[in-house]
């Protein structure tokens, strides 16, 4: 072990487990790719104000969890704690919204929050996200929920639930907020929570502590205060999900930890994950563009956590069927064979066959062990005598059978489907 370790709250992705992470990212991205979402990549850090304004001054993310630093040039930057604000900033900066709406984008990357680490909660984590910018259409909200659902199903996950709520809009939320504050002020709550009543009362609904939840019986719910437009919009989202055969649960207390959400909000929770059960979430953010200085662009999006999705797979005992990284492993015996087989390995790779080589001048025993460990279906072994005869030995690692194949024919032979 070296003197250094990965920083607290972080971990390294290393083979073979890292393969599952890549596969999860790919599985989440695949439905987006075939639904008109284009790939966007933004910097790992942004002006701190983007998040302060975008995510919300009163959120835990902004007040407690951001990695903020000052550059030598005096700029105040923050490592990105989430993706939406950056993606919207990038879309506005590139004027994508002037080239036809909605702008549909997906992304994948690392995010940073200074949180108390525990299983499923890290200071560096990975999300795949999607945003549909600039259209107010319940079918877009439904599309995104359906695509996330499809992604999880394609991985074989089934022990998850979709929680759905509407947070209203600027018409109906202010009156509700006031009614909620009135109710909450009558409760027996600690100092911190009382402060929250003033700045972000909806978050109190989300408080997981039993002592708080017990007092929330009879709390006014936004569901009963939605304006007609929000009610109608929400009904349409629900109908479209029903039509698509996507099960969901209405959760009138679902609020989520970011301030920018309006109307549709949803969370994917997995029941095998303990306290960090949210594998993904999102919603509509109709006011965010204006909050960061852009035009009115009603939008909707989600982010799914790659780390927790991998944990969910483990919880359900799902092993992804990943193709072996290596199909052919070459084992040379002697210098001449080394030169010839190394050239063959390059040829195989160029022909699209995943191939690897016994490096390090190993003896046959160690080399065959390496071939085994690689998961390769075939080993190609050759010594001086083989080469003198113009052949290599092709060994099927599954059956153990071995046969000589002409050196000139080996690439074509291994390129054939099923080899
Ligand atoms: P949020 O951006 O908070 O809505 O989170 C969206 C998803 O990202 C969550 O459902 C988690 O899967 C994942 N996520 C958020 N924060 C963390 C974290 N600290 N560690 C691991 N995953 C996280």
What do you see in this structure?
The chain has an eight-stranded mixed beta sheet with strand order 1-5-6-11-10-9-7-8, sandwiched between helices. Strands 13-12-14-15-16 form a five-stranded mixed beta sheet, with helices on both faces. It has a three-stranded antiparallel beta sheet with strand order 2-4-3. The protein is built from 16 helices and 16 strands. The chain has two domains: 18-172 and 226-315, Bira Bifunctional Protein, Domain 2 (BirA Bifunctional Protein, domain 2, 2-Layer Sandwich); 328-415, 3-Layer(aba) Sandwich (Rossmann fold). With 419 residues, it is of the alpha+beta class. The chain binds adenosine monophosphate. Adenosine monophosphate binds next to β6, β10, β11 and α12.
Task: Sum this structure up briefly.
With 419 residues, the protein is an alpha+beta fold. The chain is built from 16 helices and 16 strands. β3 and β4 form a beta hairpin.
Descriptive terms for the model:
BirA Bifunctional Protein, domain 2; 419 residues; Rossmann fold; 37% helix; binds adenosine monophosphate
């Amino acid at each position: 072990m070296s003197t250094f370790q990965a920083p607290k709250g972080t971990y390294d992705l290393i083979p073979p487990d890292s393969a599952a992470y890549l596969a999860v990212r790919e599985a989440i991205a695949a439905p987006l790719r075939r639904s008109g979402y284009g790939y966007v990549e933004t910097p790992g850090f942004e002006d701190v104000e983007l998040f302060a304004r975008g995510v919300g001054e009163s959120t835990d993310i902004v007040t407690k969890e951001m990695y903020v630093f000052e550059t030598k040039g005096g700029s105040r930057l923050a490592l990105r704690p989430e993706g939406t604000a950056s993606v919207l900033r990038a879309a506005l900066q590139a004027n994508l919204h002037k080239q036809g709406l909605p702008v549909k984008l997906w992304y994948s990357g690392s995010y940073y929050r200074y949180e108390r680490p525990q299983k499923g909660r890290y200071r560096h984590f990975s999300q795949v996200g999607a945003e549909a910018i600039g259209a107010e259409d319940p079918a877009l909200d439904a599309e995104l929920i359906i695509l996330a659902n499809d992604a999880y199903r394609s991985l074989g996950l089934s022990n998850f639930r979709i929680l759905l709520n509407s947070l209203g809009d600027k018409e109906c939320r202010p009156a509700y907020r006031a009614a909620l504050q009135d109710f909450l002020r009558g409760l027996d709550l600690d100092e911190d929570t009382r402060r929250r009543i003033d700045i972000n009362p909806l978050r109190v609904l989300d408080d997981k502590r039993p002592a708080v939840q017990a007092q929330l019986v009879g709390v006014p719910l936004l569901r009963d205060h939605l304006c007609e437009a929000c009610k109608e919009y929400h009904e349409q989202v629900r109908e479209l999900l029903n039509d698509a055969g996507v099960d969901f649960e209405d959760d009138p207390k679902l609020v989520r930890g970011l301030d920018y959400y309006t109307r549709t909000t949803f969370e994917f929770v997995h029941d095998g994950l303990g306290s960090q059960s949210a594998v993904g979430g999102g919603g509509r953010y109709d006011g965010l563009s204006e909050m960061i200085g852009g035009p009115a662009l009603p939008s909707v999006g989600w982010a799914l956590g790659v780390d927790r999705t991998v944990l969910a797979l483990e919880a359900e005992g799902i092993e992804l069927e990943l193709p072996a990284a290596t199909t052919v492993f070459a084992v040379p015996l002697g210098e001449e064979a080394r030169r010839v087989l190394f050239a063959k390995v390059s040829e195989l790779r160029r022909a699209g066959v995943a191939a690897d080589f016994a490096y390090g001048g190993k003896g046959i025993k160690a080399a065959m062990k390496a071939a085994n460990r690689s998961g390769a279906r075939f080993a190609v072994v050759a010594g001086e005598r083989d080469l003198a005869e113009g052949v290599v030995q092709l060994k099927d690692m599954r059956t153990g059978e071995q046969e000589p194949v002409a050196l000139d024919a080996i690439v074509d032979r291994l390129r054939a489907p099923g080899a």
